[in-house]
Amino acid sequence: MSPEVECVETESNIIPIQDYQPESEPAGSKETLRPMAVEKIAEELKNFYGGQKEKCVSSHVAAQVTHFCEESPEFAEVVYKTKRTLSDCCAEVMKGVGNHISDFDVYRGIVRAYYPNADVRFLMNIEINGAAPSEEEMSKLPEKPAPKAKPAPKPQTKPQVTVVPPKKKEAAQPEIIQLSLF
């Protein structure tokens, strides 16, 4: 007696369920989309367009999008399938930014540009290597830079000013106005 195998019937043949992959997904599904998403981002970086602020962050944003794609197959799938480009992502991240933006806001903006209902979490840890500083090191005051030498002030010579007496006003002649009644 042979075990019964569940199958899926397609237009061309019957396939066992464990071997079936819907035609809408490429072979290997989300896992094979990672390299394709990374390749897409690299190509979009070569063809990048945008303003000065966007260009300043473009290579860092591309590196971070690539990292997120390698970290999450779902994110890679969205990056690969979306019509939005790296240029669009940078424009959205930098929209409304003044002279500065925090790394956290950039990373959050990157993720939300591609995947609006996603977020980024940060975890920072301190790594202590070796022994604690000695009492002497802890009590030492920080070195202050030497004050910059100011250039010697130039002797100020007063410019010679010639005083011109004001002109006397000539006696004003009365202004004549002619009126006509007819």
Features:
single chain, 182 residues, mainly alpha, two-stranded antiparallel ribbon, 2 strands, 3% strand, flat
Rg, Å, rounded: 38 Å
> What best-fitting shape do the alpha-carbon axes yield?
flat
The SS-based structural class is mainly alpha
Beta strand count: 2
Cα distance spanning the termini: 135 Å
The string of secondary-structure elements, in order, is EEHHHHHH
Biggest sheet features: 2 strands, antiparallel
Strand content: under 5%
- The strand order across the widest sheet is 1-2
Overall pLDDT: 80
Number of helices: 6
| Helicity level | 40-55%
Unreliable runs? none
Textual characterization of the structure:
The protein is mainly α and about 180 residues long. Helices cover about 40% and strands about 5% of the residues. It is built from six helices and two strands, in the order E-E-H-H-H-H-H-H. The N and C termini lie far apart (about 135 Å). About 20% of the residues are buried. The mean pLDDT is about 80.
In short:
By secondary structure, the chain is mainly alpha-helical. Helix content is 40%, strand content 3%.
List the helices and strands and how they pair.
Layout (H helix, E strand, L loop, with lengths): L6 E3 L4 E3 L12 H18 L5 H20 L1 H9 L4 H9 L8 H12 L20 H5 L43
Antiparallel strand pairs: 1-2
Helix pairs in contact: 1-2, 1-3, 2-3, 2-4, 2-5, 4-5
